[in-house]
Amino acid sequence: MFSGPVVMNPILMIPMWINSITGPLIVWTVMRLGLLNIPAKMIQVGQIPAPFSSIMITEDWRAVIWYVVLFALYMATWYPFLKVYDHELLVKEAEE
What we know:
The chain is mainly alpha-helical and about 100 residues long.
């Protein structure tokens, strides 16, 4: 985050904030509606890739589907901001 520079760049900070709110809200809603199991026990899965750890935590294969949906949503959120940032860098490079 700090080497990106995402943290100190307002253009890249906005999608990070948006995703940090929308992702958990979607997961909460999906679990509340019963479309995904609510975790019943605590499992330490920090070293396991996310789609697999999602299945282990929720004990539900549908977690992979929601992982892909969230990934697509996150990418759709980041894409316009990355294009603006890329354009800014290209303009700055052209000036130099």
